[in-house]
Design brief:
By secondary structure, the protein is mainly α. Helices cover about 80% and strands about 0% of the residues. This is MFS transporter.
Length: about 425
Amino acid sequence: MVLEQDVNAAGRVRRVALASAIGTTIEWYDYFAYSTATALVFNKLFFPSLSPASGTLAAFATLGVGFVARPLGGIVWGHFGDRVGRKAMLVASLVLMGLATAGVGVLPTFAQAGVIAPVLLVFLRVLQGISAGGEWGGAALMAVEHAPEGKRGRYGSFSQIGVPAGLILAQLVFFVVNSSLSPDQFRSWGWRIPFLVSLVLVAVGLVIRLRVEESPVFAKLRSTGARSKLPIVEVLRARPKQVLAAAVSFIANTAMGYIFFAYLLSYGTSVLKLSSTTMLVVVIVGSVVWLASIVTAAIWSDSVGRKPVYLAGSVLLVVWSIPFFLLVDTAQPWLLIVAVVVLNVGLGATYGPQSALFSELFESRFRYSGSSFAYAVGAVLGGGFAPLIATALQSSTGTSLSVSLYMVGVGVLSLLAVLAFPRKPLVPVTGE
């Protein structure tokens, strides 16, 4: 009987982990489809009256708007995630993201509708940002709060791999569409296909998410009546230092991540004059390494602790920032691949253990709010305008060294925040 219960429990944990991975992959596919299109075509489609450089800046500005909305999503989803449940908010985030993404796929361009086109684009990006702000916390907590003791890093990584997996899926879809059509066809209507594919993916994700059980930690909170009435207020009062440290620790990862998969596409095609196909392949290779390093780092953190893994990754990101663009500027594809491979090892080490680490910083009654808000604030401070800042720096200075120095700056900032993390879990994830 005990053995049967153990088998059933293990199967339940695996189902939740798989649902977390698949759901976040679909969610981030939607988010990154926008990022990819921003780097490739949105400047021409929605800001054609501007110069190429100004159009790119404007397109990346709409990318940043989605990040500004993410703290709002973190607060709203965190509140109801701590009050209503993790599962319900995960379903809501997936529906909202899918509808917003499909909406981008049917938008009129500037040539068809004038100024209303970029206005609608920004509105849909805001909806994506709100959804993304609440998605991560729910997926991370579902995986971590179901995980057995000693394996929270391993199971928490399933929510983390959804980010590179979604990026890989988005890049592959764009690669296939871009390779199958002429440049004129892609700019005319082909760019819409990846956004409309979202409807099918969201349907699949909903079927999977609706079948998983609620987090046992939240179920206990509900049964005991221990839920917080105003979780975001309580977490900011009880754990302000932890919220700040968690948010700042994420700045470098998200800033360098968006420089890698959003800015690099634009830089490679517009400045280095490499084909979009070549750049998509480079990003896909880097994303595969990112995914593998996330899992490796998360498992490693179960053995040595979250902080040592974070420190190793943070140091690598700082050290590699200048060599990264020195290799990229050779315009040799194999050297570009070396550059992104090493960078993504650092990104994986500072992202793999994140679900477990953030969960271990906050008590269960306000854990969704604390984790989501810290994640969203770090994202907006880091990745929100990183491609815009990188484009502006390169355009104004004429050298990628300025972008590298920017990467060093955010890397050092996050490294200092990582040093403030506790060596061991601050609070228990289960059994509170």
